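I'd like us to work through together how a protein chain folds, taking it slowly. To get us started, please write out a protein record for me. Label the sequence line and the structure token line clearly, so we can match residues to local backbone shapes. Once you have written the record down, we can walk along the chain together.
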Amino acid sequence: MNIFKYIKKAIVFALVVFSLSWALQSPSYAAGLEGKWKLTSLNNSPVSEQFNITVAFDPNESRITGNANTGFAPVPYFGSYKSTENTVELLGPVIKPLIYLGEEGEKYFSTLNSAESYDVKDQKLTITDYSGKKLSFVKAE
């Protein structure tokens, strides 16, 4: 009889451990961010054709990478981020070469570095910063 008591406790313990491990798994909130995106507007103003910016989010590595091209050559940038269901925060400023990318480029990086939330709908991504400025993207191929 005593052995059954221990088996019962072991089964209950195993179920508790399994349930906790299932419940405590961190969901991949950033899966909606995953992939490559092309900037279409900056603070509700369309970006000029010569201004081509892409961003890619990798939720497995919590890494952000991209290219900013103002008509001369692509300027790569990268950083790390964390996110929850609808918030995104860059962990430190995005690292990029010390190249002036014009007013649009400076606004882009300023808004991206102070990102607070995101929304993904119909292959469109909107990132909003703490002051309400917005970056709008479409899914890139």
